[in-house]
Amino acid sequence: MLREETVFGPIHSRRLGTSLGINLLPEKGKFCNFDCIYCECGWNRDGRNDTRLPSAEKVRHDLSNKLQDLLADGIKVDSITFSGDGEPTLNPEFPQIIDNTLALRDRYAPTAKVSILSNATRVHIPEIFAALRKVDNPIMKIDAPTNELIAKINNPAPGYDVARVIEALKQFKGDFVLQWCLLRSPEFDSTSPEVVDGMLQIIRDLRPREVMAYTIDRPTPAQNLTKLTPEEMRKLLQPIIDEGFQVQIKG
Fold first, then answer.
1. What is the residue range of 70's domain?
2. pLDDT band with cut points at 50, 70 and 90 for residue 2
């Protein structure tokens, strides 16, 4: 179960290289509108001891100090990544934090990309979309093609609608990264035709600039989950690879 400081790392990311993390959520808790069976941060119910969200000023202060230290030590980062203990766009100062981060990146680490890992539930909110549009790598998650299947793997808060998420993602006009976690559980199987056929159609409809396909890599809150091999994932994604989509597969 991860509990991250506001600025943490840098760490090695399977998908983003040397990554300096930013956690816009509680340092000792979890705050998310999903409760994914594979979440390395644990169940939402286990992270309610701390509900304090960092302010834009705290994020700016901590990130500025960290970037200056890394510059002085000659440490290069590939990505400044918003991830942390839950959904980063839930922080009410998210748009201001993005603006501050981009300014600090330009000053202290101009070669680094700014990335955000999001469940895409708030892309339909204009100010959230405007902020996401500014970053280099808006990495938006969809793990299943229907509300019924998403309920089994992501346990979203009431009101989630994958059709609304897909419509909102169309605003990017393909200039985003779609991430997809593939796994097996007693109730869910990413290799089933109902998942694969639906997800490939979503990819064709949204035409993201890249698809990040990955599987579980750390301890998970749900038991009896099975990771897929890179070979299994490649076989499932081969139709869109053949169609020319850029696909990154991480086991």
1. 7-250
2. low
Cα radius of gyration (the chain): 18
Write down how long the chain is. 251
The confidence score (pLDDT) of residue 4 equals: 75
Structural tokens at position 191? 């290799």
Q: Count Cα neighbours of 82 within 13 Å in the Cβ-side half-sphere.
A: 30
Query: How high is the pLDDT of residue 134?
Result: 98
How many domains in the chain?
1
Only one residue has tokens 């559980």, namely: 185
69 residue type, one letter: D
Inter-residue contact 54 to 6 (CB < 8 Å):
yes
User: Mean pLDDT across the chain, nearest whole number?
Assistant: 94
DSSP H/E element including 137:
strand 137-141
- Residue 199 · residue 180 · CB < 8 Å: yes
pLDDT tens, position by position, 149-158? 999 999 999 9
One-letter identity of residue 242: D
233: domain CATH number? 3.20.20.70
Q: Could you read off the pLDDT of 18-66 as tens digits, one per residue?
A: 899 999 998 887 889 999 999 988 898 886 777 789 999 999 999 999 9
In a domain, 158, yes or no: yes
- Whether residue 51 contacts residue 26, with contact meaning beta carbons closer than 8 Å, is answered with yes
Q: Would residue 128 count as lying in a domain?
A: yes
What count of other Cβ atoms lies within 10 Å of the Cβ of residue 231? Answer: 10
Helix pair 56-72, 94-108: axis angle to 10 deg: 20
Residue whose token pair is 């993201």: 208
Q: What is the dihedral of CA 56, 156, 123, 17, to 10 degrees?
A: 70
